[in-house]
Amino acid sequence: MRYFFLSFLILISVWSAHGNLLYGQEKSRLDSTIIQSSIDSTIIQFQVDSVITQPQSDSLSIPQRMVKKRATQNYSWKINRKELNGLVVQDMSDIAQIIPATSTFNFGSPGQNNPLIFRGGKPQQSKIVIDGLVVEDIISGNLNSTALPFHVTDTLNFQSGSSLLSGETADALFLKTKRISGTLPFSTVRYGIGDWNYSDLNIIFALPLSQKSNLLISAARQKFGGFSGEARDVGNSRFWGAFQRRLKKNLDLKFVGLLNKNKAVIPSLIAPDFIQSVGSPLKKENRLDSQLALKYTNLTASYELDVKISISKVHQESFDNNIILFDNHSTVSGLVLQNTFRRNKFEYRFGGETKLTRVSSEQIPDLKDDFKRGFIGLNFNLTEKINVDFLSGLEKHKGYKTEFNPGFILNYNFTNISRFWASVKKYSRYPTYVERFWILPFYLGNKELKPEQIRSIEFGFKTTPKKNIAFESTVFYKSIHNWIESGIDAPNQTFTFRNIGDYNITGLDLKSTWKYFNAGNLGLTASFLNFGSSQPVVPNSPELVMHAYLEAGLPLFQNYVFPILRLSGRFFGSRNGWRHTGISTPNVIGLPSVSVLDAHLKLLFAGATVTVAYKNLLDRDYELMPGFAMPPRSLIFGIDWEFWD
């Protein structure tokens, strides 16, 4: 019955897409020449790329001001919509597979709290930024990646300790949403269904309001019922909005907002919910993140001023048998200013940030915190091939001494197809409220924790020897002084936190792609991590994570349909983790290595895309986080419609 239903939906989508194609031909919006040229150039041009663009006959509704900017060329792993298109994406855990430096605390099902991890660290050491808006969880530091609007995301860019707008120096992942170009509204509807009562509905609507303003909205609703024999009831609603307006010729305004409502029944207890219990807690989170940004540009003086005002409100709850485990409200408001001057070969950046945090909780006293930072940077071309970037910042967090964080980046473009870079950086990570103040019978914070001091050095190389071949690799070393470790206080059998001295991470990231013909791709991303500590703590095992894929496509039926088949193999090396079991304190256990195989099929039409995925084809029984089983073999079906109004 399931396959009959899928076949029926595919036939409906083919009929709908064919009708859309004929309608588009009548309106001169698409013709076979455009379709063929799209297929020849790339296998995914039917999908929306970085700019939501209407037909070529339409003029641009928003003038594109050309601003000469200096390419700082900082190290990054950039993933664009073309690369995402080969995956059937349910959440950010799927996307993290193809970013070498990124993994997740994967709790095994869509909609679960799956924080992102960068370069073997922990979620608290990282930043997530969406169109300039910093999204964070100041209570535990474990940002739920389900809140991120991945459906409307066009590119993801991981940067290692870079000095960017607001002076952030932590490892950061930047999400850039789609831009609008044209005079007509645009909309996309996506519906997905799958095993274990999975469903996903997403709507994207782009509306040019005038020659000077436009609006982009994305709304999503996701449900998941849980695997057989497990209670994993998950429900997630997400709304993303972005409004842009040209106030004057040299003054732009942009407002972005994120609303997220998530609830999930989890099969095992996790921090900071750890409490004497034998049930499965229900976690709830409601959040509102918003930012108003103004950009002033003076082309004559080669000057830019960026101003950002933001506010974030988050309410988190956890229940077990209707008993409140924790109930937290947090509000974070901030102001960021950055000035940029360009003179000949030099670019000067300086600015500051202030942030005020208020927390109220059932477990800890009400708290108020503030954070201030000033930063300055200088970028210049030493020669035609060598670019240098100096950056430094002073920051003051309430209750801690002032920290100085410098950095240096060298880029050497020694040929037109090859680039080498090296960097040395330092940045700080302050303890979260859970780590400092939490009070539960078997879970205690530590008010005496010191900030982590993170120093990193890296060397990277990128080359494109041929138009269809690319290779990129980075070797890095991170030394974290005052690493905040979670562990058991043996005398009291209490789960708590402490600074352990030095903790070191050595890593290798690589990415390679080979477009072996116009409609085929072969790719590999991989990360290897090794851990060491100056203290006798339970060390992490060396980790090896690889994602290799083979992709092939072929135009059929006079180009009305273009199928793409993608086989994706993932390998996870051995690692350690905490297993939380009922009323006892957690134990460290080792997780064995495992290989997983997925299959993805996409059928691309002129106005619709049909996706079918079989995940975990070999039906492996495995965990990436102790106590949270990963999905068994699962079938997922989805369909996207694109409309020109």
How would you characterize this protein structure?
With 645 residues, this protein is mostly beta strands. 8% of the residues lie in helices and 56% in strands. It has five helices and 39 strands. It has a 22-stranded antiparallel barrel. A hairpin with a 4-residue loop joins β15 and β16. The longest helix has 25 residues, at 2-26. The radius of gyration is 25 Å and the shape is globular. The two termini are 36 Å apart. The model is unreliable at 3-73 (pLDDT under 50).
Poorly predicted regions are 3-73
Structural class: mainly beta
The major beta sheet can be summarized as: 22 strands, antiparallel, barrel
Helical amount: under 10%
Please report the distance between the alpha carbons of the first and last residues.
36 Å
Total number of strands? 39
Return the average pLDDT rounded to an integer.
Answer: 80
Helical run tally: 5
- What is the 3D form? globular
The radius of gyration computed from the alpha-carbon positions, rounded to a whole number of angstroms, is 25 Å
Q: Which percent band covers the strand fraction?
A: over 45%
Notable traits:
645 residues, five-stranded mixed beta sheet, disordered N terminus, mainly beta, 5 helices, 8% helix, single chain
SSE diagram, text form:
Elements: H1 2-26, H2 32-41, E1 51-53, E2 76-80, H3 81-84, H4 92-96, E3 102-104, E4 116-118, E5 126-130, E6 133-135, E7 153-159, E8 171-177, E9 179-181, E10 186-194, E11 198-208, E12 213-224, E13 234-248, E14 251-265, E15 282-298, E16 303-320, E17 323-343, E18 346-361, E19 367-381, E20 386-397, E21 403-412, E22 418-429, H5 433-437, E23 439-440, E24 443-444, E25 452-466, E26 469-481, E27 484-489, E28 494-499, E29 502-517, E30 520-533, E31 543-553, E32 562-572, E33 575-579, E34 587-591, E35 594-604, E36 608-615, E37 623-625, E38 628-629, E39 634-644
Parallel strand pairs: 1-9, 5-8
Antiparallel strand pairs: 2-7, 3-4, 5-6, 7-8, 10-11, 10-39, 11-12, 12-13, 13-14, 14-15, 15-16, 16-17, 17-18, 18-19, 19-20, 20-21, 21-22, 22-25, 23-24, 25-26, 26-29, 27-28, 29-30, 30-31, 31-32, 32-35, 33-34, 35-36, 36-39, 37-38
